[in-house]
Amino acid sequence: MKIRKYMRVKKVKLLSAVLSVWMAGILIPGVMGIAGGVPVSAAETEVEASIPVTVREAAGTVIMEAEESDAPLPEQTELPIGTDKNQQFGPIRYSEPEDYHYKIYQRTGNEKNVIYDTTVYEVTVRVTNSAAGELEAVVWCRKDGEESKADQIVFSNSVKKPVQENTQVRNVTVYKSKTVKTGDAAPIAVLAAMSGISAGVLTAVERWKRKNEK
């Protein structure tokens, strides 16, 4: 009888211990969560950022490069952008609070009549933890060599105007010889011969008059 009674007491104690552990697993995390020991909901572990880019006057290809090896990059780091069009690099996903640095510039194209904007933009993406424990991202940029921040990333290309060839025709005056008219048209050679004959006749008459006067 004593052995059976001992076994019953032992089973009751074991069952109580199991119930205590089970209740602790349910109640304790809830109490700790209310007290702030364990977070009730997980904070955001990623944040996304996008960087808009504009090309004006003539189409171009814009390149994005990271200055740090661990800086996240978008899926597309080269953007062919049409004339007066807007595109963006991104979304870019960040999971660690830090300052990330990039360079954005335009590739020189092959169009002979286009002068490409060679400006280089330095872009900073600052990722921080908010008061709620979530990641936040702030983006700003500046032109290379300048201290002030730029409002936007814009590449302004210019198009050369084609040189027009001078096709003006000069007026040339052409002088034409006219036939001498003496009532009827006569060749110049005939008129010259007649003039010579007349002169000879006049000379002969003068000589005859002088001879007779003597």
Structural commentary:
With 214 residues, this protein is α+β, with helices and mostly antiparallel strands. It has a domain of 113 residues: Immunoglobulin-like (Sandwich), CATH 2.60.40. It contains two helices and twelve strands. The protein has a five-stranded antiparallel β-sheet, with no helix packed on it. Strand 7 and strand 8 form a beta hairpin. The protein is rod-shaped. The chain starts with a helix and ends with a helix. The N terminus is likely disordered.
Topology:
Layout: H1 2-35, E1 47-56, E2 60-66, E3 78-81, E4 85-94, E5 98-107, E6 114-115, E7 120-129, E8 135-143, E9 154-156, E10 158-159, E11 181-182, E12 184-185, H2 188-213
Parallel strand pairs: 1-9
Antiparallel strand pairs: 1-4, 2-3, 2-5, 5-7, 6-10, 7-8, 11-12
Task: Provide a compact summary of the structure.
With 214 residues, this protein is of the alpha+beta class. 28% of the residues lie in helices and 33% in strands.
Q: What descriptors fit this protein?
A:
214 residues, alpha+beta, Immunoglobulin-like, five-stranded antiparallel sheet, 12 strands, 28% helix, 33% strand, rod-shaped, disordered N terminus
Strand content: 25-35%
Indicate the CATH architecture of the domain at 47-159: Sandwich
Look at the structure and give the CATH class of the domain at 47-159: Mainly Beta
* Structural class estimated from helices and strands: alpha+beta
Q: What proportion of the residues is helical, as a percent range?
A: 25-40%
Strand neighbour order, sheet with most strands: 3-2-5-7-8
